[in-house]
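Slide 14.
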Amino acid sequence: MVTEELTPDIGGLSEEPPVWFGRRQTTTPTAPVAEAEPPPTPRLPPGAAIVELRTLCLGEMDPTSLAKLTPEELTQEVERTLAEIATQRRIQLNGREQRALARELVNDMLGLGPLEPLLEDDLITDIMVNGPEKVFVERRGKLELSGVRFRDATHVAHVCQRIAARVGRRIDESTPMVDARLKDGSRVNIVFPPLALDGPYISIRKFSRHKIDFARLIEFGSMTQPVARLLEMASRARLNVIISGGTGSGKTTLLNALSRLIDIGERIVTIEDAAELQLQQPHVVRLETRIASLEGRGEVTQRDLVRNALRMRPDRIIVGEVRGSEAFDMLQAMNTGHDGSMSTIHANTARDALTRIENMVQMGNMGLPLHAIRTQIVSAVDMIVQVERQRDGRRRITQVTEVCGSEGEMILLNDIFQFTVEGEGSDGTLVGHYKCVRSRPGFQSRLNYFRLDRAWMQAIEDASLS
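Slide 15: predicted structure.
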């Protein structure tokens, strides 16, 4: 039996009209021709068979037809195509292998390839691709090597370019680093060769599908009820709060939880490098930085956005993360009537957070003496909340610190709460408690103004007894 050779219909240039799913029809001569049965196709090694199936299946697909299918329909058609090709080529493929290969192809066409199963796993919080053979994940605060693999470095590069293109950015040798976000809000950082020596690197901080509030954080062991009550009052009293911590310690999660307590009647302006805040209020203005073009033009920094936000009549300004000279403009905003503003910063302790703010203001070449910078900090910042990912994998609030004032060249701090580790449970979880200080805070007048002074002292008393 003679059949026409199966070739992909490229660009719709073929004279034959495409059929469903973009596959060509086979034609049969009018008069059958008797000929010897062709010898069986030698079975390929498993790896080579999969490569051949993948190539032939992609070759038979018409992009125009694919665009009309839902993901479920596409998966069914891919499975059907794989089964037909495997039968024609006499490649042994069981049902499980067929479904796995179909999912892989659909993920490559519609999603991020091998990363899609990891993105769907709610237990995974971070995904780190260190080349095609090494994909690490963080699950329950612990890093582990996953079983996910890319075909080669080109496959990883294709996924990187797809991520960058979705947010209007590019990634190549001329622009080897980019920050982006996925459709669900997950934050992505990509490093491309020649900076990346083992192939493109991808770091994904996953976006939580579940709303994280104080109740969930208490459930996770990140804080206790008295600590949550004090932070709630700090938000309602419009205190200026800095959340400090290391990478992956839960700063943005806590900032999102704090922001849920903001009154729905307030106008909030958020400023971020890559948008990931999840504010639920109806009056939110979201601003995002922009990198320079290939000609070196069009860059918009966080400092530019903070300055512009002051002209937008905000009630509160939330800076996703302060990392440069915009620290000065953030302090100015906090000092010019925008009480209740919030931001995050990378630092190991509350004292280190203030030192970092000082250094970042000096990076802006303001020409301000150190004493003037510290005076700005004392008058702007009311509270620093220190978060930490501890050795048991849990993210906890370890310090709630008040900025009291200054004495000479020293900024005075008062630890309202401090977490002390006492031991370790049978499951490896750290056991400890919060030490608290029963003193009147420096922002007592604000508590009085919002009629929260008694509730504040009651929360301190409850924490002392717990």
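Speaker note: The first helix runs from residue 46 to 59.
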